[in-house]
């Protein structure tokens, strides 16, 4: 039996709802791996779950992704060995911990070119970008792509990857500084969506052209504009709701806006099969190796002050990825 520190929640609420407990961690069971976690990823879904926007059975842990070193393996585990560096996502809630037992088939061994912090910062966000640019819509040379919240963790990866695939990228972000970050990530055009006339300014910047695909993680504040800024027969991809749930619409509205397609995908179904998950991860690692995807760690937060990561994200005080360091 090993001791571990882990975050537990007994009620939904603000960042103060996160408490750190010391727990007894048993030896890994058959098919499991015990991981000493060196870097934990943060994703905005953690905020939704903490607040109860996406309700969870209580009490619960929190967190979906982390990287670290394999310390022990259970019976039947052959794909990883003690001493291997590995990362995971979608191994069940509970990544907010310094040690954890996870199913071996949820792990991917890290190549030398990818550090533990980079893996924790990218494994969820990068895999989100991977399915968005390869599965939801196969971004191709010449596509005009609109990326909302392009200064955020996923937004920067998505912008850079679309550019590497030959697309023209129009980005939105909140404020001049974040627009500069979006341009640094590769955006051809960056529009400040905190200004009231931003949709008009965006169309002026593109010469009236609308996007073949719109990637919208903002939700309520941008969704109806996303429909207006999508080209006929184009695709609006709603993959988050940072500003709140989107208003309900009648399907007929999609017809009136230009025979649009609308989808609400998620990273987990795209990586539910272990073999598919590893193949998608290899695609991500190859994009990192080629320079198409770069890690941008905006903040490193000690495990003891994990609530600060939530406050900073909710107040939109961060750019890039947040990494929690045990």
UniProtKB/TrEMBL annotation:
Coiled coil: none annotated. Its cofactor is Zn(2+). Gene3D superfamilies: Medium-chain alcohol dehydrogenases, catalytic domain, NAD(P)-binding Rossmann-like Domain. It comes from the Bacteria. One of its GO terms (cellular component) is cytosol. Belongs to the zinc-containing alcohol dehydrogenase family. This is NADPH2:quinone reductase. It comes from Enterovirga rhinocerotis.
